[in-house]
Amino acid sequence: MKKLVLISFALILTFKTFAAEVSGIAVSSHVSEFSVVDSKYAREIFLGLPVKNTYADLVHGLVFRYHKYFFCVREPSHKFHCHLYLNGLGSGQLSAFDKDTDFGKGTISEFLGTSKANGKSTISYDNNTLRIKFDSHLAKRFWDKLDLIAESYHTIGNKKYEVRKGKHLNCYVEKNEKKDIYQCQFNVTIKTNRPKIEIDKELN
After folding, report:
1. Of 6-20, 31-45, 136-150, the least confident
2. CB of 149 within 8 A of CB of 134?
3. Going by fewer Cβ within 10 Å, which terminus of the chain is more open, N or C?
């Protein structure tokens, strides 16, 4: 009997939606959790992750995708959201989903004593890296979480900046007399998967 070959094309990660920067994407944060809550763009991240779906046993239609640092969810209502978690050590490093112990929620006192913050972000993808840029009070919150990183100081024109660079999160503050301006950016490597051919031995 002639062998039957199943050609299984693994998802080729392109994130075409984010080939150019997309602005105004809704995000939120609670303790050390950072979430993309705009369902339209969270769906693009969900579909772009080169991993298989994980299905909830007890809830029909609830689907997860885990990709090291990203934890994405499709609700039964087809609403999408994606999450990143700082490891809480002050160095700007994300927690891998298989090693994180609190999913960014912190201690009970941190969770109960910290309010949720909402904001907007700009997302882009190039050179195998998804970049999520955000500012204002949300950036100030994450600037404060990089407290173990020594600042570097820069002057561009007549503006002065303090910069904290972590492994996955960089932040800076533009110093002004009236009000300081904060901006942060997550840089998450998500490499492309090549298509692969698998032979189903049961069909030989």
Report:
1. 6-20
2. no
3. N
Residue 180 has pLDDT above 70, yes or no: yes
Beta-bridge partner residues of 186: 132, 169
Instruction: Output the pTM of the full model.
Output: 0.82
Rg, Å, the chain Cα set: 20
CB atoms closer than 10 angstroms to residue 138: 21
Instruction: For residues 199 and 184, give the distance between their C-alpha atoms in angstroms, rounded to a whole number.
Output: 46
Task: Give the C-alpha separation, 107 to 165, whole Å.
Answer: 25
- Supply the mean pLDDT for the chain: 83
Selection from 19, 20, 21, 37 nearest residue 138 by Cα: 37
Can you tell me which residue has the tokens 């693994």?
A: 10
Q: Percentage of the chain surpassing pLDDT 90?
A: 50
d(CA 59, CA 93): 32
For residues 50 and 10, the answer to whether their CB atoms sit within 8 Å is yes
3-state secondary structure the chain: CCCCCEEECCCCCCCHHHCCCEEEEEEEEECCEEEECCHHHHHHHHHHCCCCCEECCCCCCCEEEEECCEEEEECCCCCEEEEEEECCCCCCCECCCCCCCCCCCCCHHHHHHCCCEEEEEEEEEECCEEEEEEEHHHHHHHHHCCCCCCCEEEEECCEEEEEEECCCEEEEEEECCCCCEEEEEEEEECCCCCCEEECCHHHC
